[in-house]
Each structure stands twice: as C-alpha cells, then as structure tokens.
Design brief:
Strand order of the largest sheet of chain B: 6-7-8-3-9-10
Radius of gyration of chain B: 17 Å
Strand content of chain A: 15-25%
Structural class of chain B: alpha/beta
Strand content of chain B: 25-35%
Structural class of chain A: alpha+beta
CATH class of chain B: Alpha Beta
Largest sheet of chain B: 6 strands, mixed
Number of helices of chain A: 14
Shape of chain B: globular
Number of domains of chain B: 1
Largest interface: A-B, 23 and 26 residues
Largest sheet of chain A: 6 strands, mixed, barrel
CATH architecture of chain B: 3-Layer(aba) Sandwich
Oligomer: heterodimer
Shape of chain A: elongated
Chain lengths: 417, 238
C-alpha cells in the first residue's frame, strides 16, 4: 500500500469520530491563534522600539572609538568621518550614515542647573527617519543649520530648568583635553515624547556649534550612526561594517550599545515563548489523548490489518499520518481563524492609549519611547517557527499511540469485541 | 480438487498449545498431526473449546505453538521473524473472519484490494482482478459501498474476495457462516466451493454448523484438542 493510499486511509480514519477530531483540530487552531497573537504582537512592538532606540541612540550599528563603550568620554572620538561615511554608505542594507556627538552636559539657566544627556546632530542630514525627536517637537522649531545657536530640550527638562522658548541656556562640557568648556544657546524648541527618560533627561544641539565648543575638527565626531533597512539585519551589517574599519574604530550592534534594551526584549520574548510553550503542551496533551483513545478503540482493526499482511511499520505510519493530518488541518484552521484579526491588528493595530490613560499617558522601555499603537507584524521566521513547532508537537504526540498500534498482537486483538 | 503428489500446503506435526492463566496451564491442543494438500476443501469441526480456532491461528501464523512444527508450503514457521511472518500472511494466507472484520472506512472495492495494495501490485492489475472477483462473488455494482451499507452476507463476500484476491496458497476461514442466516450461509458455501473448484483455492474452515460440515470434502473432528476423526469424502454429503 503506497503512501498516498495510506494517507487517504488515515484521512478517513480521522473522521470516524467527527466530534472528537473537530475538538482536537479546534485546540490546535486555537494554540496557533494564541501563539501568532503573542509572537506577532511581540514582533510588531519590538521592531518600532528598536528602531526608535536606534533613532535616539547611535543607529542600528554604531561606529565609535574602541574604548568608548566602557569609558565614554568626549576625547574618544572618530576622525575622518567624511570619508568613513562614504565607505559605510556602500555597505549593503545600510540606509543612512550620520556622524553625531553624544555625551553628558551640565545645563544652566538663571534659575536652575541640571545634568542631562545631549545629542548633537547635523540638521542638514538628519530627518525623522534617523532622529525620532524631529517628529516630536511640541513647541518652537528645529535647527536650521549645523551652526544654529539654539538648543532643543525635553519639555520636562525645560520645566525643571525654568526655561521656555527663547530662554538662554549655558551648556558645560569637558573637552578633549579634559578642560571645562561652555557654550551658550537659546531654547529654540521643546520635545514631547512618550518617554519620561527623553522628556526629562535629554537635550539636542547642532553639531557644528558643539564641534566648535569642544575644539573638534570639522570631520570629527563621537560616533557614526549607521541605520539598516531592517533591524533584523543589524548583526549582518555590523560584521560587514567592521570589514571597512581601521583599528582606531569599532562597530557595535544596537544590542551591544544598548544592552539594557536587549536584555529587556530577551526577557519579554522569553516570557512570551514560555506561555506559548505552555499552550502548546496543553494542546499536545489533547492531541495525544485523541490519538491514544482512537488507537485503543481500534486494536481489533489493527489486529486484522496485521493478520492480512500489514507490518508494524505500516501501522505506525498509518497512525503517524493521522497525526500529520490533524496538525495540517489544525494549521489551516488556525490560519483561517487568524486571517481577520491579523488583518485588523496589522493595519489598524491595538491602541494602548486607554490602558495608560489613568497614568501619565507615557511609556518607555529601557528609556526608549514606546508607540501607543501596537501593530501585529509576524516575521516570516516566527511564522515558520510556529508552524514547525505545532507540527512537531502534533507528530510527537502521535509517536506513542503509533508505536502502540505497531505492537498489536493479532491473535489477542482479534478476540476483542 | 485435491492433488496428493505435490508439496503439502500445510504440514502440522506434533503441535501442542498450552495457554497459561496465572499458575494454571490450560492445554488447547494436545499434539496435532495434519497435512493439507493443494486444492483441499477442509472443515475442522468440534464443540466449543475443542481447539478449532487455536489450530487455525497457528496455521495462519498468528500465534506460536508451545511444541511441534508447522510448515506452510514446506517452510517452517518456527524460526521466522515477525516481519517474515507478516510477509508470509500477506502473500500466502488469506483470512476470513466470523465477524467479517472489514475496514469500515474503506469501500467494498478498497477492502478487496487492500492485500494487493500492501503487496505493491500495480493499480491496473488490482482493478482488473478486484472487479472480476467482486463480480464473481455477486457484488457487481456495489464496489463503492462501505461495509455499513452492506448486509452481513455481502460483507462476508467482500471478506472472501479480500482473502483470495492476492492468490494465497490457503484461505483460513474461522466460522465464516456463523453470523449469517442459513440461506446466506448456503450461498456463501456454494460460492467458496465454486472458488475451490474453478480456481483451485485451498480452503480450511472451522465450523460447528452441520450444513457446512456436510459440504466439506474433508472433515476433521477435534475433541479436547486432539484429532478425533479425519474423514475424506470422494463426494460431499450435500
């Protein structure tokens, strides 16, 4: 009996206890639904968070001085950024390459002094795609040139400094020689994000003004932020970027430059995977029960098949094909069940505004602002993983019942009524 | 139709079978000697518990004797592996059970062809042979019916077609008429007799039905696990 005929027989066997089969298929479909829901929302929410982190931090891949990560200081710089940017732009999957100066500054107004982080950027080169605050300016305006005399503050930072648009702010830095240097700017804009860490602790400066203050060369920066067309390619691009660097610079992926965020995502993904595994185990127990009961009910039949020439392997194959059918139908049913909700959640998304309404309507993850609308975006590798795990669990559940079927003694089982 | 000078289909020598029930030993067969030649139409009769089914199970390689030797077409079953026994049953032995035991999910056609399908016989050959057989057993036009859509007699006809479809050396039938009315039993027996005469199929069936015994060409009577009589008839009693 060929595999096709055996598969047809397995298919027919499945529908002998229609209700039981439908319940089992429903449980597989529901497990798929939950797994896709959890992992799809995960995939959909972490992508924007990582992209936002890259837009506030140093890109998906950060090129910087080899010692900067352990001992960040403004004397650990990258020089010759003009040529370096050109070389990095030729690396496949790189979308933007931008020099930046980042560090800590002391900000003072006539009434208050506070420490804050700063990002100095070139307004001619950067847009919302590379710097997230550019679409979060709630008052004032963006810098017009790299030598602009303005400073953009997080709105909470401005409030704590007692500053408003037009207020003079002195920013004090430590230059390459370790000397204290200062620059003067007027508040030209305020940003309001969903991240308390940004709104309270970050300011933005034009890169030309900061270079002058620090005594940097025109092609000198603390980092070169490299943006990738898809954050999942960060590792691959970082490896390629390292290939074009000399030993005075190194390249870090966002996971290395922002380990807090990476750890947080790993923990959340681990939690999601744990719950998915739990659902899958419960589902596998149901499938096992269906197949085992179905085998025990058909011992006599298996005995007859053994008597007329089936061998243990063929009976094992028959039951395994039944579990294969269960898994495949369950996956198809799961896909049908998911189609509508997936379309809605991937286009409209899940609006979390109300969930945060009672609080301060702001949320961040490891200091990175999180969008209030989470859209589902199941990556194809996650979809393949879910399908493979569901099929694997289904087939695994069928192993013992199939083995049991193959061990039937015809002379004993044919006696059964 | 009996040919006495060819290799016997079945040779049973000194076969004993003892079942254990806890510490108790229950002898089912107490030393059976039996030879069945190709083309024989043999009935094994005897009261309940006399060992008829046990003997058929042993000849059919479904069970192993406690002592003695069984050969099918000269091949000793004793040293065979599970796989070899399975192949022997598939290729050389046909089974007809009292309760028909057809696969409920398969049609009459599929049930009849299942052994050939397992053997790997080409689809066209299977179709030709099964259609002819189903017509021969009077089931033309019922090929697509499933067992539940057939009467008991019709199901047993399908079972007989299944048993002989792969041209086995011997067909073992355990009380083949026990679950059908006497009219249907007559028709089934007439059909088996016809298959025996026209195709030379060797039949061994167990029975305690006097009508069946009367049609047998050879009647073997078992009492308490031993052969009480072995009667050969030039012409059946009916």
């Amino acid at each position: 009996m060929g595999p096709l005929k055996l598969a047809r027989m397995a298919w027919s066997n499945l529908w002998r206890q229609r209700r039981r089969t439908i319940i089992t298929i429903s449980s597989i479909a529901f497990a798929c639904f939950l797994a896709v829901f959890m992992i799809g929302l995960n995939d959909g929410s972490w992508g924007p968070v990582i992209d936002t982190a890259a837009r506030i931090g140093g890109g998906h891949v950060t090129v910087q001085h080899p010692d900067y990560q352990d001992k960040p200081a403004l004397n650990r710089t990258v020089t010759g950024t003009g040529q370096l940017v050109e070389r990095l732009r030729s690396v496949p999957h790189v979308s933007h390459v931008l020099p930046r100066i980042v560090g800590q500054a002391m900000l003072s107004t006539t009434s208050e002094s506070m420490g804050a982080g700063f990002v100095a950027y070139d307004p001619a080169q950067e847009g919302p795609a590379t710097l997230s605050i550019l679409d979060a300016v709630s008052a004032g305006e963006l810098f017009k040139t790299a030598d602009d005399r303005g400073i953009i503050l997080g709105w909470r930072l401005a409030r704590n400094l007692g500053a408003e648009l037009g207020t003079k702010v002195v920013y004090t830095l430590t230059d390459k020689k370790g000397e204290i240097v200062s620059g003067l700017a007027r508040v030209s804009g305020l940003v309001r994000t969903n991240s308390p860490a940004v709104d309270l602790g970050l300011c933005f400066l034009p890169i030309g003004a900061v270079r002058r203050t620090l005594g940097y060369a025109p092609d000198e920066a603390v980092q070169v932020a490299v943006f990738v067309d898809n954050y999942r390619r960060s590792d691959e691009v970082a490896a390629a970027v390292k290939g074009v660097l000399d030993d005075k610079t190194t390249a870090l992926t966002w996971k290395e430059s922002q380990p807090d965020l990476d750890t947080f995502i790993i923990m959340k993904r681990g939690g999601g995977a744990f719950f998915s595994a739990l659902i899958l185990i419960l589902c596998a127990a149901g499938i096992f029960n269906t197949l085992f009961v179905s085998v025990m009910e058909r011992l006599r039949e298996f005995g007859v098949l053994m008597a007329i020439g089936f061998n243990a392997g063929r009976l094992f194959g028959l039951v395994m094909l039944e579990s294969l059918w269960l898994g495949l139908i369950g996956l198809v049913a799961g896909a049908i069940l998911l189609a509508g909700p997936y379309y809605y959640l991937s286009t409209v998304g899940l609006d979390l505004t109300k969930a945060f309404a009672a609080g301060e309507q702001q949320a961040d993850i490891a200091g990175v602002a999180m969008s209030m609308v989470v859209k589902m975006d199941l990556h194809h590798t996650s979809a393949i993983a879910i399908a493979s795990i569901v099929m694997g669990a289904t087939l695994l559940s069928g192993l013992y019942p199939a083995w049991k079927a193959g061990r039937v003694e015809p002379v004993e089982s044919i006696k059964l009524v | 139709m009996t040919t006495t000078d060819s290799v016997p289909i079945v040779e049973v020598q000194g076969v004993k079978k003892v079942y254990r029930q806890g510490s108790l030993e229950v002898p089912a067969l107490r030393g059976i000697d039996l030879t069945i030649q190709p083309g024989e139409f043999t009935a094994i009769c005897g009261p309940s518990g006399s060992g008829k089914t046990t003997l058929l199970n042993l000849i059919g390689a479904l069970d192993k004797p406690t002592a003695g030797s069984i050969k099918i077409e000269g091949k000793e079953l004793g040293g065979m592996t599970r796989r070899q026994l399975s192949r022997l049953r598939r290729d050389r032995i046909g089974f007809v059970f009292q309760a028909y035991n057809l696969m409920p999910v398969l049609t009459a056609y599929e049930n009849a062809e299942i052994v050939m399908a397992v053997q790997g016989v080409a689809a066209a050959t299977r179709q030709q042979r099964v259609m002819a057989l189903l017509a021969e057993v009077g089931l033309q036009g019922m090929e697509k019916r499933k067992p539940l859509e057939l009467s008991g007699g019709q199901q047993q006809r399908v079972a007989i077609a299944r048993a002989i479809a792969a041209n086995p050396a011997v067909v073992l039938a355990d009380e083949p008429t026990a679950n059908v009315d006497s009219d249907t039993a007559d028709k089934l027996l007439a059909m088996m007799e016809q298959l025996n005469k026209q195709r030379g199929v060797t039949f061994i069936f167990s029975t305690h039905d006097p009508k069946v015994m009367a049609r047998a060409h050879r009647l073997l009577k078992l009492v308490d696990g031993a052969v009480a009589s072995d009667e050969r008839r030039a012409q059946p009693a009916v």
